[in-house]
Amino acid sequence: MFFLINKQFLYLGLKFWANDSDLLAISMAPNMVFMVDNVPELYKEYMVKGRNGWTFLQAIRDSIFFEFHDVLNTNPVPPLDIILCRDTVSFMSAIDQRRILSDFDEKAKNGAALIFGSHEIMNRPNWKAVNADNASVFIKGA
After folding, report:
1. pTM of the model as a whole
2. By CB atoms within 10 Å of each CB, which of 5, 29, 92, 131 scores lowest?
3. Which of 1, 4, 9 has the alpha carbon at shortest distance from 59?
4. pLDDT tens, 49-84?
């Protein structure tokens, strides 16, 4: 998702918050190194060759803030334009789903997009579903 959004706007200073409740995974994410044979063609233009393999351009690494965080606990972030939460909400209890959707309501700007996995739905009055392939997309305040 990052690459599709950032392709035209790589140097405009966009910021992305990436959260994971796996401390080891999120602490290793900024330093990911790939063998070029394992990298999809779509990503190669955003990578440079280093000593141990291929890594993302510094401009991309600088625009992503990796944070150890459990989405069930609120965290302070600035108002958001896009929330990508694929294949997460459907695995939560009904109580946790209500709590996280309420948190999304609070953090999302008017007109923000919320992107879920294709089988996930949201039934909240201030979010409108829009057509999308392979995802469930909602716009706030539409």
Report:
1. 0.66
2. 131
3. 9
4. 888 888 888 877 887 778 777 777 777 777 888 888
Residue type, 11: Y
Residue 5 CA to residue 120 CA, distance in Å, equals 22
Helices (H), 13-135: 23-28, 41-44, 58-63, 94-107
The HSE-up count of residue 88 (CA atoms within 13 Å, CB side) is 17
Task: Output the six-digit token pair for 137.
Answer: 């997309």
Q: Which two tokens stand for residue 87?
A: 């294949």
Contact 19, 76 (CB under 8 A): no
For the segment 111-134, what is each residue's pLDDT rounded down to a tens digit?
988 888 888 887 888 899 888 888
Contact 15, 2 (CB under 8 A): no
